[in-house]
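Hi all, long-time lurker, first post. I run a small reading group and we've been trying to get comfortable going from sequence to structure in the token notation. Rather than ask abstract questions, I figured I'd post a concrete chain and ask someone more experienced to write out its structure so we can walk through it together at our next meeting. Sequence below, copied exactly:
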Amino acid sequence: MSDNNVPFEIQEEIIKRLPIKSLIRFQLVSKAWKSLIGSRHFIADYSAPHPQLQHLLVRYDDGHTSKPIYSSVVDDHTLPNRRVSLTPPPLVNWLRDSIIIGSSHGLLCLHCFYGDDASYGFGTRMAVIWNISIRKAIAVVVPNEPDGEIYITFTSFGVCPETSDPKILKITEIKTWSDTESVTLIPWQVEVFTVSSGVWRCPYSTNLPRKSVQFSCLQVVVDGFCYWLATDRSTLDPGFKAYNLIISFHMTSEEFTEVNLPDSLIYEGSADYLNISNLRESLVVLDRNTEENVCYVWSMKDDGVSKSFTKLFTIYSPDATLLSVLEFRRSGEPVIEILDNDADPRYVPYAPSLLAIYEPKSKHTSNLGINGIGSFFVHSYQETTLLLDQPDFTVYDKGKGYIVKQRAEILSLLKHTSKV
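-- Answer (accepted) --
Happy to help. Here is the structure in token form:
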């Protein structure tokens, strides 16, 4: 394809239909193609070839290595045969004891404390956004909460569907219910970081969550909304039951909304046995009953006026202990973590758990052949060009982007910027 023979507008339309790996190579063909493929309008408009493959990102510990293992599995009829090991980029590898806080539009966001004392829960909060498909990551320094004795801060992540702009949310809430009466206003209750601007700001909307609401750290992005399970602590009764609900955040308008759960889940006691997930762009609530070794799957229906929940099916694993429901395949089948019932009960905390697929119609469980020690993380994703315009090794802090190529440089940067 030569510049002399084909108009550039036609070239652009052809390039838009290329797979991700070809795009990366084609950036080396000419300056014009490199500029086009790395431009924000191209990244926002890019449409990968159809039908696009769905992948499952799997993170787990095998008990033999000090760092978590990352694998990508193609989610089609060949599952789990098309599985490859992933080598995370340095900004991800440099994290210690990181947690995955969310995934959206093919991007994964991890969070940890960063610094020499990070293992003790101190240090600087750092979020890293990772595009698995193009092996690129950027890091964002997260401002700390105003008073660690009274407040607690957590982060969430999603991509705005209108602008394709990745966003990190920092939400600060009151740590204990006894302090809510003395606090009239939570300082910097909600802040939003957008990759396009490189800075933290207040959300567009002013309808912030009530100070009595306590968020769960578990989140999921569904059809342009970020959802969390939450508890309204103002409804605590003498039996220590609290009102469970869902909080939503619109990724475009940045408005918070409260969503009522089904009556049977409102006063379930603790929200620890509840979880939320994305099933074919519908929000589902997972109600796990450990005594019966089952999990009930509820789906939310939104008719534009009200939201209601319907119980879809029950996950039951008679030959193994159901530990958690991690994700849903493109086909709608749950990806579950189970523990072999034959495991010696004396070593259960250290026994390897198994990753499996549950088939709701046949009620059959299929082992995927992936064993791990501790918790699995499974996230569904599709290939994307987001972050392609970002320079490698970029770290955002206090409105500026820095290029760092060694972990020690990040520590030095954090010490310097903390004095500014």
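A couple of things your group might point at:
The longest helix spans residues 407-417.
The chain has a mean pLDDT of 86.
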